[in-house]
Amino acid sequence: MKITIKETQEKLRKGEITVEDILSEFFARTKERNEEINAFLSVFDKTLNDIKSKDKNLPLYGAFFSVKDNILIKGERCSAGSRLLDHYIAPFDATVIRKIKEKGGVFIGKGNLDEFAMGSSTENSAFGPTRNPIDSERVPGGSSGGTAAAVADGMCNAGLGSDTGGSIRQPAAFCGVVGFKPTYGTVSRSGVMSMASSFDQVGPITNSVEDAETIFNAICGKDENDSVTSDLIRKKVKKDLKVGIPKEYFVEGMEEGVKEAIEKAIEKVEKAGIKVEEVSLPHTEYALPAYEIIMASEVSANLARYDGIRYGLEFDRPVAKTIKDAYLENRGEGFGKEAKRRIILGTYALSAGYYDAYYIKAQKIRSLIADDFKKVFQEVDALITPATPTLPFKIGEKVEDPLSMHLSDIFTVTANLAGLPAMCLPCGKKDKFYVGAQVLTDRFHEDTLFHLAKKLEEIWKQ
């Protein structure tokens, strides 16, 4: 049963249900479905005690979260989907976890993910793939696939994920839920395991735009433990919004069913009286390769800390003879294929002789892409694009084809490159699958994005 936070709160206020009833339903659903879906890596047994201690007037009272397993919850295992951290217990709460607790939210369990958030399908987890709740033969998207699947399948009514190049929005599209990546720096990353630090951003996965807004307002703000954070700069929402459709996002290679659903969704927007015009973001074609180079470079630096000394595998064999052997054994056996692939690529791009040719050039392209958005937001207030070029693909279909897998993020990486807020929400269907549309606004224009997304949500439900 999919239920929003708002619906849950209304039922609690009216006395139609109790927190015990809600938890019983969520736990029963999890017990029934998790063995097949593998959305949760762990489920907490103390949740009821947590919720009984909460003030019923708090904004997140009635919100029950799946939390991506790269976000620390004190006293709970945090594996990041990797064998290297199978036995790691978080020593403190991430800032976003502390804020959610303070606002009345509670946590049901930790969601499965691609190892260290590297992937677009949640097949790269050391603990097995997560399956799409709509069709268990297909992927839920990634890397926040476990959390998106849990929300979509009614195992909880809210989720918290991290988004480096689309890892909240792409699984939201595949699972038919709402996924929101805020402006870079508006939400603290303290207590979130780093993948690519200049891209990573925490955000909500929910069953409605309003729920996403409620959670964002609860977790945003400056944090002394994260130097890039700032208090949200509220921008005035215009009465009549103008929406741009970037022509570069309607490229060859998009599945016909996805393209058709997006075009119908845009027609509905125009019929509803919202101004729509075509715009251009000329450097879009370079976004994915630039992202891949910068992301892999930052991955190679961030994952160097997993050296087998402070964190590592528990080997059932003699201790390594030298520290070098310990590094090789732990990193060689602890990291999965995708993590190794990105570490190697990033190390290569940062090495002498290639740094200028690859990394610096990618950073220059990043600046050009950000400039494209600055110019286009002088013409329009928001953009609507496809969220993914395909419907959910079959498990195993793209595992041996990394390039094809990475193309799943072709429409989402630009928001991370430019640090923009972006949201995915369902805009239509193709057969039994949802098609996700992406809405973007300028930096710190979250209020405009939520205002427009609520309108679109109503338009696209009709």
Explain the layout of strands and helices.
Elements: H1 5-14, H2 19-37, E1 40-43, H3 47-52, E2 64-68, H4 95-102, E3 106-111, H5 145-152, E4 158-163, H6 169-175, E5 178-181, E6 201-206, H7 209-219, E7 242-246, H8 256-271, E8 275-279, H9 287-302, H10 323-334, H11 337-350, H12 355-376, E9 382-386, H13 402-406, H14 413-418, E10 422-430, E11 433-440, H15 446-461
Parallel strand pairs: 2-3, 2-4, 7-8, 7-9
Antiparallel strand pairs: 1-3, 4-6, 5-6, 5-10, 9-11, 10-11
Q: What report would you give on this structure?
A:
The protein is of the alpha/beta class and 462 residues long. The protein has two domains: 5-237 and 385-461, Alpha-Beta Complex (Amidase signature (AS) enzymes), CATH 3.90.1300.10; 285-362, no CATH class. Helix content is 38%, strand content 14%. Strands 1-3-2-4-6-5-10-11-9-7-8 form an eleven-stranded mixed β-sheet, with helices on both faces. Helix 9 crosses helix 11 (337-350) and helix 9 (287-302) packs across helix 12 (355-376). It is globular. It starts with a helix and ends with a helix. The mean pLDDT is 94.
Shape: globular
Q: How much strand content do the residues show?
A: 5-15%
Q: How many β-strand stretches?
A: 11
**Order of helices and strands, N to C?**
HHEHEHEHEHEEHEHEHHHHEHHEEH
CATH class of the largest domain: Alpha Beta
- Spatial strand sequence of the major β-sheet: 1-3-2-4-6-5-10-11-9-7-8
- Give the rounded overall mean pLDDT: 94
How many angstroms separate the termini? 21 Å
Q: Specify the number of helices.
A: 15
What are the low-pLDDT stretches, counting only 5+ consecutive residues below 50? Answer: none
> What is the structural class?
alpha/beta
